[in-house]
Amino acid sequence: MCxxxxxxxxxxxxDIIISGLLALEYRGYDSSGIAYNDxxxxxxxxxxxxxxxxxxxxxxxxxxxxIGIGHTRWATHGKPNEINAHPHKxxxxxxxxxxxxENYSELKNKLKNIYEFKSETDTEVACALIDxxxxxxxxxxxxxxxxxxxxxxxxxxxxxxxxxxxxIYAMRRNSPLIVAEKDNDYFIASDIAAILSHTxxxxxxxxxxxxxxxxxxxxYDKDLNLIHKKINKYQGTINDVMKNGYDHFMLKEIHDEVxxxxxxxxxxxxxxxxxxxxxxFGSFLKYHSITIVGCGSAYHTGLAAxxxxxxxxxxxxxxxxxxxxxxxxxxxKKDELVILIxxxxxxxxTLEALRIAKENEMDTLGIINVLSSSIARESxxxxxxxxxxxxxxxxxxxxxxxxxxxSLMAILMGYERNIISDNExxxxxxxxxxxxxxxxxxxxxxxxxxxxxxxxxxDREMFFIGRNIDYALCMEASLKMKEISYIHSEAYAAGELxxxxxxxxxxxxxxxGIITNSSIASKTISNLKETKARGSKMILVTTKAIAKxxxxxxxxxxxxxxxxxxxxxxxxxxITALQLISYYVALLKGENIDQPRNLAKSVTVE
Length: 606
Ligand code: F6R
Hints:
Layout: E1 3-8, H1 13-24, E2 31-38, E3 41-48, H2 51-59, E4 67-73, E5 88-90, E6 93-98, H3 104-111, H4 122-137, H5 140-150, E7 155-161, E8 164-173, E9 178-182, E10 185-189, E11 201-204, E12 210-213, E13 217-220, E14 226-227, E15 232-233, H6 249-255, H7 257-268, H8 274-281, E16 289-294, H9 296-313, E17 317-321, H10 322-325, E18 336-342, H11 348-359, E19 363-368, H12 374-378, E20 381-384, H13 397-416, H14 422-444, H15 446-456, E21 461-466, H16 469-485, E22 488-493, E23 510-515, H17 521-532, E24 537-543, H18 544-548, E25 558-562, H19 567-589
Parallel strand pairs: 16-17, 16-18, 18-19, 19-20, 21-22, 21-23, 23-24, 24-25
Antiparallel strand pairs: 1-4, 1-10, 2-3, 2-4, 5-6, 6-7, 7-8, 8-12, 9-10, 9-11, 11-15, 12-13, 13-14
Helix pairs in contact: 1-2, 3-4, 4-5, 7-13, 7-14, 8-13, 9-13, 9-16, 13-14, 13-19, 14-19, 15-19, 16-19
Bound molecules: fructose -6-phosphate (F6R).
Fructose -6-phosphate is lined by residues 295-298, 342-344, 347, 350, 394-395, 479, 483, 602-603.
């Protein structure tokens, strides 16, 4: 959500900043801008729309700056236009911002007699506050410290002052920011993707930290004590943030799913043996209940895990959307584990939910993809998803990595509670090889999914229905479809449809029914047929074993099948198949698959 990059060094800052912004564009893409030092004067260039527009505008001048800051925006306060785009300048202070200043109205009132505000943004107010204090204190660090004390909400800033044009200040709270150094060139960035073509080593700013970046790097804590930071190393390569011949990052990331499974298996269950899991995940025996918290797809994977935890490990499990959890009354229990699921590890609501769980003295476990992200650092325990960089806004491989880890946890917890025997556990784990093969086969069979997509990509509405874990899979499948294709899609518990919502079913409306569990197959089939009776086109998504029972039933528009797997892994292949269908629907519609409208990755605001 909003991308920031800053550069101080020997190269042309405009080029470095533009390539960084292009790499960060998945964090927001409604406008962008840059500020740079041109012969000791700070020049600002901004444009509405994609970074390519800014690039074009900048290409028209021959400036060769060596210092600058850039920003790609996902609008929160004010329309996505040039005035609201960052950088903002007030007095002698120019800055870019990621986050939300929650008390900006109050601060605006305080400052309105001193400054004239041009934009509708909270950022311009923060800029004015910093300018106010730099004027009063005559010391930049003191000014930043004073401003930090007054700013509520979340922020990552990169700041340049007119009277120190060779220096960038960076500071953060509740929004991520990293700083890096390579051969006396210095970088500030929202995340590693922006600077991977230069270095894979970086320093993480902690809450309230300030970095001063000029011909050297200096770090201060929130009380302005000098601090030393340890270097972190990103384990991937520049290829992680390149399309590498794929038309879209989403397609590349779906193709990467088998590799992600391999990474997870190699790290957590190398011998496909339950003892591996015990050693690598640790024990969960002391917990008698679990709450899972996440947003969007991470919430959906929690819903699927609830079913597995309850049915195969006998642990009552509650699943909460992080944005609800943080404002609801909670009843903390000593023997409860709170699991926070997040790809980015920076989602504002999930981070806050974690802090609430900790305040209530509950044990926390983060299931996180981005290493050293805020939720990973603040959780008591972490299991990393090992999915590598995910660039497409719609999650695919990271969702499946979360789902696999939760499935493995369910097997371990069932085993620890003597519900699953040693033998059974190891037999389930052996199916991991099959999971990889089946996923690979689905991905190799793309033409088939494309053909199905062709049949209904012009439709305006669709439904996904299922029961139990299949309902959780429906929610993910439906979200994927609507977020990238803009077809209005709903996921519904199959048996609940007739209690009102079935009134929406019209002639030729596509209704997907997901069935992975044979014991309730006939129930969901009946619900599908109820929609068929009202004119729907039924598409059954199921296992080969279940499909056998319907091979002579020609009332289905399609029957999409996947190979049979144990219940822990069955949903994963179903989702890969449905991700591909969503991808092809969006492709046929000509939508911007990697950067769908109104969205951005890593939601660091509430
Ligand atoms: C949907 C999607 C979002 C994220 C959600 C949580 O495709 O990507 O729903 O799953 O914003 O993000 P993380 O996992 O980073 O906390």
